[in-house]
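Q: Convert this sequence to structure tokens.
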Amino acid sequence: MKGGTTMVDDIFERGSKGSSDFFTGNVWVKMLVTDENGVFNTQVYNVVFEPGARTHWHSHPGGQILIVTRGKGFYQERGKPARILKKGDVVEIPPNVVHWHGAAPDEELVHIGISTQVHLGPAEWLGSVTEEEYRKATEGK
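A:
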């Protein structure tokens, strides 16, 4: 604490506000590696989720890796129980696995996202995680 406010150690600025076409709640995305020239076949981005904010259901044709840098959140594959995420966790998401990830109801989540094999195409977005799905995934955890 300094001067009555909490100091947050942000490595990256918040970036651009995420679209409601892909997110529920307030989310900011800062692209770190766009790989526009196709040199690395990878995109890297920092994502900040306010409490309760989350992605919609989606999949990546080339897979995705998440590295949690702050806060608490959840990761869930369709048809499986949600997994709690905390600082230092790494999630390896195979190609074409339908999933969502986002913040806990009462705590912010920040992660680095890495989309791999981007030459296979962009993420496929499949609609929002309903309030009921989110509640069932996060309640009591």
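The longest helix spans residues 131-138.
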